[in-house]
Design goal:
Length: about 300
């Protein structure tokens, strides 16, 4: 990750933008380890998408959601189990109905604690944010690939393709306004995060990730809310798809030419970085190269 310890991963709930009627996003301001957070209002329920990291952020997001939702029922779902997206869920326990997909819940059960420990090692500000974190299970799980929530007058579609950026990523799609929340399946102007930490975490599927992005493009979303970065349109999806396809092809070609992993890191890394001069977090390029290298042969 980065050489320097990241700053406090504070969610700024004053930075709320309404991107479609009743569809709000708490903007990440590109603060490391802060995600874009969604609040979607129906007539009878409000859906919160991700919480930020740690109990204090979770409480702040809950308060912002309650302010917008009034006395509507609150429902929480997470795009995936990673700490900066979901480790504020404890603030919602007993207050909101928490819904995950089965693969996501299983992955959280397996990796929730190790990831909490790993993130606490990422510097004092992150450790402080996570100090009071309790890992809480979902209230409801759905099996299969899709689950529709009736919010009253509008629906929210949760959809998973299984393993991609993690084992149980899901998108949230609001059909009436074509707003799409992608979690880390798509980040804007950011090198996609390949959490390739063998032997501890190897739950990535690059080929399936491409399919996810193609299927999301087929939705022709009007607004794409990435896991991190600025809200935009479908170009966010195609940029990530093109990046993953490009790095897969480059590694395949290098492997066919007999290059070692070290050669690939030395030669491909700088070329890939140079192809995206305005993208953030280039340290993730090497993780992607190592992942695709491990998938050769
Ligand atoms: Zn993630």
């Amino acid at each position: 990750m980065t050489d320097q310890a990241p700053p406090a991963p504070d969610v700024d709930t004053s930075a709320i933008r309404e991107i479609a009627k009743g569809v709000f996003v708490i903007l990440d301001h590109r603060v490391p380890l802060v995600p874009n957070i969604g609040i979607v209002l129906g007539e009878k329920a409000a859906l919160v998408i991700d919480t930020g990291m740690g109990n204090a952020n979770g409480k702040a997001v809950l308060e912002a959601a309650r302010k917008l939702a009034g006395d509507r029922e609150l429902i929480l779902t997470l795009t995936h189990f990673h700490p900066e997206h979901g480790y504020g869920a404890d603030a919602f326990k007993g207050v909101a109905r928490i819904i995950y997909n089965k693969a996501q819940a299983d992955e959280f059960a397996d990796k929730g604690q190790p990831y909490l420990d790993m993130f606490k090692g990422m510097g004092p500000a992150v450790a402080a944010a996570l100090a009071d974190t309790t890992l809480v299970p979902a209230d409801e799980l759905y099996d299969g690939t899709e689950h529709t929530i009736d919010l009253g007058g509008r629906t929210a579609v949760l959809r998973t393709w299984g393993k991609a950026h993690t084992r149980g990523d899901q998108i949230v799609y609001i059909p009436d306004c074509k707003a799409l929340f992608t979690g880390d399946l798509a980040e804007e102007k950011t090198f996609p995060i390949f959490p390739w930490f063998p032997p501890h975490d190897m739950d990535i599927d690059g080929a399936n990730w491409l399919k996810v992005l193609d299927d999301c493009l087929a939705l022709t979303p009007a607004a794409v809310v990435p896991g991190h970065g600025e809200i935009g349109d479908a170009a966010i999806l195609s940029d990530v798809r093109d990046y993953i396809a490009d790095i897969a092809a480059r590694v395949k070609q290098a492997a066919a030419g007999g290059k070692s992993e070290d050669d690939m890191l030395a030669e491909l890394g700088p070329a890939i970085k140079a192809a995206h001069p305005d993208w953030h977090f280039p340290e993730w390029i090497d993780f992607a190269i190592r992942y695709f290298h491990a998938r050769q042969g």
